[in-house]
Recover the amino acids of this structure.
């Protein structure tokens, strides 16, 4: 058993469907709870009520699950505050907002190495991705993050917020402006060569 240094609360944000890993969660919960029996799981923004989500799990797991079908944007920081580790076993996202929100909250996060989440997770120095569908590997990484010393956990937390900051609107605007400026300068240089 790991020597736990922090409270075991794992959080997921996303609609409850196969693409976002709903079918993998029962195995993840089972494997984590085998090693960390007191682990709890918070599912945010599922879009479905508690009974709908719980039916994918065996009844023995239900006491460990908290389901919040919907919330207002301003409530998210408070909902994430008690969490320890983020989790997103999704197979495909256009843009991994769910992963980004957890990283921005300073939550060390595990995700499948899949389109969308990969864009955020590759910016971490201390990455935590596993192959899509690798339920034992995913659960193992969650437990590893939970088992970190307070100092190592703080490093992972700081790495998470640093990676998320790269997606701030001001950074995106600066990068977009730089790309346009470079293209404009190349276009101008080509016109000047053509006129010579």
């Amino acid at each position: 058993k790991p020597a736990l240094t922090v409270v075991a609360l794992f959080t997921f944000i996303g609609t409850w469907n196969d693409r976002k890993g709903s079918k993998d969660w029962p195995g993840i919960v089972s494997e984590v709870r085998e090693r960390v029996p007191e682990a709890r799981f918070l599912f945010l923004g599922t879009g479905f009520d508690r009974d709908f989500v719980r039916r994918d799990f065996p009844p023995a797991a239900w006491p460990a699950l908290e389901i919040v079908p919907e919330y207002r944007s301003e409530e998210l920081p408070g909902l994430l505050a008690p969490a320890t580790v983020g989790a997103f076993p999704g197979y495909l996202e256009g843009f991994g907002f769910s992963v980004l929100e957890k990283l921005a909250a300073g939550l060390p996060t595990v995700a499948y190495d899949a389109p969308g989440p990969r864009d955020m997770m590759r910016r971490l120095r201390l990455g935590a991705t596993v192959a899509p569908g690798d339920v034992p590997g995913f659960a193992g990484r969650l437990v590893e993050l939970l088992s970190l010393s307070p100092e190592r956990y703080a490093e992972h937390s700081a790495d998470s917020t640093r990676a998320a900051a790269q997606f701030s609107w001001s950074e995106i605007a600066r990068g977009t402006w730089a790309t346009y400026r470079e293209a404009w300068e190349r276009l101008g240089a080509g016109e000047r060569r053509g006129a010579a």
